[in-house]
Amino acid sequence: MEGCICLNSFILAGMNIEKIDPQKAELLIDELDKYQQSLYPPESNHLDSIKVLRKPNVIFLGAIEGENVLAIGAVKMFSGYGEIKRVYVPPEQRGKGLAKSIMRELEKRLVDQGIFTARLETGIYQKEAISLYKALGYVKRPPFGEYSNDPLCVFMEKTLQE
Q1: How many domains in the chain?
Q2: pLDDT tens, 7-64?
Q3: What phi, psi does 112 have (nearest 5°)?
Q4: pTM over cut 0.70
Q5: CATH number at residue 135
């Protein structure tokens, strides 16, 4: 069904998950920043700017309905792995499977690029996000890349299949 996202047993007609310019999602990025800043101190917040999200090694996706960006997610590609970033569904859009759909599309895009390891960092207070990642097959791991041990951070990884 073109123009639809099939989620479990229902369909969201007229919605697409597609690559977009992060600037188009500036309001959601700002909303996510404010939310995370209310939960964690600056040293535990790893918030990529729109400038970073526009770099060539980043795929930034939006769940789009008409002209509206309903949810977002990104992946930064590095040698040997991709780092999932900025997955956010505002409260009024939750319960529709958007985060799961965005995660699956990000994983598919990594595999399309020949990258078979997805990693992420999230915060300990984001229980719903951690539950989603576990349900999708992510497991805890030590810090990676430029991250260091932080008691407020959870690091996770998944091996992706072709």
Answers
A1: 1
A2: 432 335 668 999 999 999 999 999 999 999 999 999 999 999 999 999 999 999 999 9
A3: -60, -25
A4: yes
A5: 3.40.630.30
